[in-house]
Write a structure and sequence with these properties.
The structure is a homotetramer.
Chain A lengths: L2 H14 L8 H19 L4 H4 L4 H25 L3 H16 L2
Helix pairs in contact in A: 1-4, 2-4
GO molecular function (chains A, B, C, D): nucleoside triphosphate diphosphatase activity
InterPro entries (chains A, B, C, D): dCTP_Pyrophosphatase, DCTPP
Protein name (chains A, B, C, D): NTP pyrophosphatase, house-cleaning of non-canonical NTPs
């Protein structure tokens, strides 16, 4: 997943719509959390086994919410100067140290 | 960002700790939402301008939470058979159609 | 606010619709968190000052989300045997000890 | 539950600590959402049946989070001029109309 390319395309949408003034890290984190809740909503009344057997429509919906979350996180990381891949790899390496040795 | 490689390493941690039984999509979405709130917590009492000027320590913390969120989403996508990159690209293309033409 | 009366009316709705099997504490906490995000959504692109000057429509919407959150929390507390008023008063007394003496 | 009394005590804590400048509705909604996630965290790896059989320690923890959520919502309602009891009763009456007749 080419994060630089995705971020550039997100910034093009942002700039075309004059949204930069809304894109504080605080607001982008809030927006990501709202999309996350829309993902959680898919599962709220499902049993755990049912959550493994989503319909095609639910799967498409889940994918859309995952997309929204990752896109808002990319925008937030860009504002903060965080390299998302580096952050993800650092956390994974940390988990490997703690839980897989 | 090589999502397949990251997912394989996550699964190695999971299997070494016998966590698969906990990893229903429902639970992984919940876990991702808890990490998201830990990201939001960093910003809750900051003004929008302050949220653009995090300390080095706050930035590191934010990066760790971004890492946790993406890792749980990768695990959830793997359980559901969702291709995260395809989901992100589909959502971005949709946003481009709606907001940048 | 008479919490027993509210809980009894919530249980009447639940039983009329045969929803008890869905009402595990886990699911009710998830549902409350989804409603919470709908409240947060109202504020996500507003500045802090703007958040103090909601329109009548936004205020009505906010009130509806507060209602949903409190109702799901009441249902969850009932399932867990938690007395919401006692829990709220205990936390307030704790805050008074920590922050107001 | 006497909401006016609780709100007055919350305002006394707030004023003693000079926190009013932090208490925009936007920030209070964020803070409530963070506490909500701390409630959700208790349940994230539990099965639904397990979520009905919390330990005494988990129950106390859940009660504390419920307390935090309700207290932040009370502060937010006070800032917005929303009468929480009225909002809760309006939502319950709406649910009764939709689901119990």
């Amino acid at each position: 997943m080419n994060l630089d390319e995705l971020t550039q395309r997100l910034h093009a949408i942002r700039d075309r719509n004059d949204w930069r003034r809304f894109h504080s890290p605080k607001n982008l984190a809030m927006a990501a959390s709202v999309e996350m809740a829309e993902l959680v909503e898919i599962f709220q009344w499902l049993g755990e086994d049912e959550s493994r057997r989503l319909s095609a429509e639910q799967l498409e919906h889940a994918g859309q919410e995952v997309g929204d979350i990752v896109l808002y996180l990319l925008l937030m990381c860009a504002e903060l100067g965080i390299d998302m891949e580096q952050a993800v790899r650092a956390k994974l390496a940390d988990n490997e140290r703690r839980f897989a040795t």
